[in-house]
UniProtKB/TrEMBL annotation:
Signal peptide span: none
SUPFAM superfamilies, sorted: Glyceraldehyde-3-phosphate dehydrogenase-like, C-terminal domain (SSF55347), NAD(P)-binding Rossmann-fold domains (SSF51735)
UniProt source species: Zhouia spongiae
A Pfam family of this chain: GFO_IDH_MocA
InterPro entries the UniProt entry points to: Gfo/Idh/MocA-like_OxRdtase_N (IPR000683), Gfo/Idh/MocA_oxidoreduct (IPR051317), GFO_IDH_MocA-like_dom (IPR055170), NAD(P)-bd_dom_sf (IPR036291)
Domain Gfo/Idh/MocA-like oxidoreductase N-terminal: 28-137
Superkingdom of the source species: Bacteria
Domain GFO/IDH/MocA-like oxidoreductase: 145-276
Protein name: Gfo/Idh/MocA family oxidoreductase
Length: 379
């Protein structure tokens, strides 16, 4: 009998990049066995996709409700243990709610829901259960981000005094300037995407990241968003000022209309003794800056890194690791939690991160709509 965790997936069929990312990540560390799911809304496509990726079709269900009904009929040692939600945003909440109510462990793409109120409902359900819930803020899985977190916690850069996160993409540029295209893109449809496009999609990554690496929580924000066209309902660019405390402040700069940019996510944390910088497009380098010594470059796999960083490193030094490895580390952390093994709290983003992410998105939009004013982030 295999001791692998039985995994189901919702969405991610066809040529979905996020689907490939999750399937590859779940196969790392030999912890999961993909047994079925609902990959496409059309059952013919669903079954063809299952055959293409080489899994049996007997647990490839025609829709989500059928999956719940059939899986809960199975003995506990046969039913899916973890189900990953990779669908468009508007389906995250109803799917996650029903999965939690039926005792499934959940891995959910971000943003976790489309509203803060929905996120709080999920949190209340989770608090009454014994299951595991993870939100895939994927970049927290990079070994050098985990190293940054541990170095900051141990006081290497001293007292934090400046935080700067930038996430620039240009992918929406060809869409936003074509009225027909932007009217038919789900990312720009509030009914499917929620109240925010840019902040909801990538700004929430930056928000979670700065809280993850610093160990601090943002207390207030002030936002200025750009919609480019008056008839476009969703932001595609934005700048958010952050207040952690009276003397610790920062900024998040996000854009999906930064022409020519691919996935330019950078994080810089400055303390009174030094600074740390990381770039997603060069994720194996962590830059340590001080005023008294030359620039230091830390790389994964070396003994000088923390246990949390080394635990998420699969290859010897000099062998690049990337986004698949980062997501794989999150899946690994969830596997430890499901098996009730010891794990570091930084191994995967939790429901709390998802709730704070939705709180952040709504407060950013609220700040912008009220004329760019400071808004408090609830605890």
């Amino acid at each position: 009998m295999s001791n692998k965790i039985r995994l189901g997936i919702l969405g991610g069929g066809g040529d979905s990049l996020i689907g490939v990312l999750h399937r590859v990540a779940s196969s790392m560390y030999d912890s999961y066995h993909l047994v079925g799911g609902v990959f496409n809304p059309n059952q013919k496509d669903n079954l063809e996709f299952a055959e293409k990726i080489g899994i049996p079709t007997n647990r490839v269900y025609k829709d989500f409700d059928t999956l719940i009904a059939e899986e809960t009929k199975l003995p506990e040692d046969e039913r899916m243990q973890v189900i990953s939600i990779l669908t468009p945003n508007f389906l995250h909440f109803p799917m996650a709610k029903k999965l939690l109510e039926n005792g499934f462990n959940v891995i959910c793409e971000k943003p976790m829901t489309t509203t803060y109120e929905e996120a709080k409902i999920l949190k209340n359900i989770l608090d009454r259960s014994e299951v595991v819930f993870a939100v895939t803020y994927t970049y927290t899985g990079y070994p050098m981000i985990r190293q940054m977190k541990e170095m900051i916690a141990s006081g290497v850069i001293g007292r934090i005094q400046k935080i700067d996160a930038q996430y620039y993409q240009g992918w929406i540029n060809p869409i936003i300037h074509d009225e027909e295209k932007r009217a038919n893109t789900w990312r720009l449809d509030p009914e499917k995407s929620g109240i925010s496009c840019c902040i909801g999609d990538i700004g929430t990554h930056a928000f979670d990241m700065v809280e993850y690496v610093t160990g601090m929580e943002v207390s207030e924000i002030l936002a200025d968003l750009n919609y480019v066209y008056s008839n476009n309902k969703m932001d595609v660019d934005g700048t958010v000022l952050l207040r952690f405390s009276e003397f610790v402040k920062g900024i998040i700069r996000t854009s999906q209309i930064a022409t020519g940019e691919e996935n330019n996510f950078t994080v810089s944390i400055y303390g009174d003794k030094g600074g740390l910088k990381w770039e997603q497009e060069n994720p194996n380098y962590l830059y340590h800056l001080t005023e008294s010594e030359p620039l230091k470059v830390l790389k994964p796999g070396h003994a000088y890194n923390s246990a949390l960083s080394l635990d998420g490193t699969k290859l010897p030094p000099g062998h690049p690791e990337g986004i698949f490895d980062s997501m794989g580390n999150i899946y690994r952390g969830v596997a430890k939690a499901v098996r009730k093994e010891n794990y570091h709290p930084g191994e995967f983003p939790t429901m709390n991160d998802g709730v704070r992410g939705m709180n952040f998105i709504e407060k950013v939009v609220d700040s912008h709509q009220k004329g760019n004013v400071w808004i408090k982030i609830e605890d």
